[in-house]
Design a protein that fits this description.
The chain is built from 16 helices and seven strands. With about 350 residues, the protein is α+β, with helices and mostly antiparallel strands. It folds into two domains: about 220 residues, Alpha-Beta Complex (H-NOX domain); about 100 residues, Homeodomain-like (Arc Repressor Mutant, subunit A).
């Protein structure tokens, strides 16, 4: 089973939307195993849990258009740096192309693409996951966000030529037609918006070429920070969990919405273990800290989620054959810490 991740910013406005509809956001989040996304929008969360949460929120609030309504609470800001670089692109073609190129920095579980056929541009959103999954609300959410993106980058009264959605029509299709002001087709293979290709060469107002170049370079350098294999993904989540003070296997398994035994089995099949990956992350952070900082070992111990300094020092000695203070003396210039 593939475990894709998505940024928590994808749930921006979720709590407000649920409460507006009379639902219990806390209960829905607890049931899905997710924490309040407003606490850390840049955190990675389980893509499967994200999809399930949207579906359960639609049912709990008796709102078949939940995803479409939620899109009104979201904007280009949920894409982080990817959104910033799009705003500084010279034209819409470049902006949407970069969304396709860098979308994995926001969501690992889907692909966006832009094609042109016979003068018609086709912007498509496709889900990577296989099997029966609740993607209805996500399709509506994505369509609503795509509409807002083009309106922001070009003109606020823009409407597509047509919208295609990968689910059956709701009993009331009025919300789609009013929102998009175009023909809407259902039971398609993916989420698709079409429009005149000539629009792609329209310059983006107030774009900054120099800033665009800087942001492109920054995104290019982010490649190593976005894991593309499972073990790297787990290392990334361990590091993320450390910022909460709990990098236990249970904590990281929760990010993936699996139990710890499942995670253990998956890692064993890959020839490693959670403890090995956790130690790799800890010692990588520890050596960088000891080389580059004069901070105290007590602070480092807390950063790495060890119970106490003695436990950290013992683990470090087993790994490197010397205590961390001695290792620092040999590998870093400057005075040793005082604490």
């Amino acid at each position: 089973m593939t475990h894709y991740l998505v940024k928590a910013s994808s749930l921006k406005g979720f709590r407000k939307m649920v409460e507006e509809l009379g639902g219990d956001a806390d209960e829905l989040l607890r049931h899905s195993g997710l924490e309040d996304p407003e606490m850390d929008p840049e955190a990675w969360i389980s893509y499967r849990s994200f999809l399930t949460l949207l579906d359960e929120a639609s049912v709990a609030t008796n709102c078949p258009h939940f995803g479409l309504r939620l899109s009104r609470h979201q904007d280009i800001g949920i894409l982080g740096t990817v959104g910033f670089v799009m705003q500084q692109a010279p034209d819409l073609r470049t902006a949407l192309g970069q969304l396709s190129t860098y979308f994995a920095y926001h969501s690992q579980g889907a692909i966006v693409s832009l094609e042109v056929q016979e003068g018609i541009a086709q912007w498509r959103f496709s889900n990577k996951l296989e099997g029966r999954l609740p993607t209805w609300q996500e399709a509506d959410l994505v369509a609503g966000i795509a509409l807002k993106l083009v309106r922001l980058l070009w003109r606020p009264d823009w409407n597509p030529n047509a919208l295609y959605l990968p689910h059956a029509p709701t009993e009331d299709v009025g919300p789609y037609r009013r929102r998009f002001n175009c023909p809407v087709f259902f039971n398609w293979d993916s989420t698709l918006l079409t429009f005149d290709a000539a629009l792609l060469d329209t310059p983006i107002n107030q774009a900054n070429q120099d800033l665009h170049r800087v942001l492109e370079d920054y995104l290019g350098n982010l490649q190593l920070a976005y894991p593309d294999d499972y073990c790297s993904q787990i290392r990334y989540l361990i590091k993320q969990a450390m910022s909460t003070g709990d990098c236990s296997i249970k904590r990281v398994a929760n990010f993936l919405s699996v139990n710890k035994r499942t995670l253990q089995r998956q890692l064993h099949a890959l020839g490693t273990s959670y403890k090995e990956l956790q130690q790799e992350v800890r010692f990588d952070i520890a050596t960088q800290y000891l080389k580059q900082s004069n901070g105290s070992l007590t602070t480092l111990t807390d950063m790495l989620c060890y119970a106490d300094l003695s436990t950290f020092s013992s683990a470090f000695r087993c790994r490197f054959g010397m205590p961390p203070r001695e290792w620092r003396k040999q590998h870093a210039a400057g005075s040793p810490p005082t604490g």
